[in-house]
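Retro notes, item 3 of 5
We never archived the inputs for the protoporphyrin IX containing FE complex last cycle. Fixing that now. Sequence and ligand:
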Amino acid sequence: MAAPLSEQTIAIVKATAPALQEHGVAITTRMYERLFVDEDVKALFDQAAQESGEQPRRLAAAILAYAQNVDKLQNLDAPVRRMVERHVETGVKAEHYPYVANALLPAIRDVLGDAATDEVLAAWGEAYWFLADILIAKEAALYEEQAA
Ligand code: HEM
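Structure as it came back at the time:
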């Protein structure tokens, strides 16, 4: 289990929720542009859901919900379960998570510009890996359960 997020990180992440509400889809659309430079990662995704804008919207909603509930993650049990199921259906593995981190954080800067200070990006980097570690552990357990 990852160390809990610091009070400071929680405060910064929560403070960015309004910007995510306004620019979330622009950020996730930009994130996927960066992510899909890697053809193997791109192949995991249903391209129809990308082109309709549905997947960027779903991810933006998930990121916003996370920002709003970063200090009360029990509120996210149902959406987390859904993400884990979908990730296991599509074959997402722990080794894919750095690609998303490396696409998401620069995408936040691309869209928010100077508002995405180094402090904001560091807080989001920490928060990303906190959630990623939860997903990775649950996905590993589900893969194992399915293999048994
Ligand atoms: C903390 C990181 C992540 C979050 C918050 C996240 C969130 C989500 C959400 C909300 C969905 C939609 C679930 C639904 O159908 O309702 C989803 C689906 C999906 N995610 Fe993730 N995800 C993360 C990491 C990753 C990584 C690392 C990969 C692989 C590169 C990935 C690949 C996918 C794929 C392939 C789908 C299914 C999309 C489709 O239908 O084509 N995700 N994710």
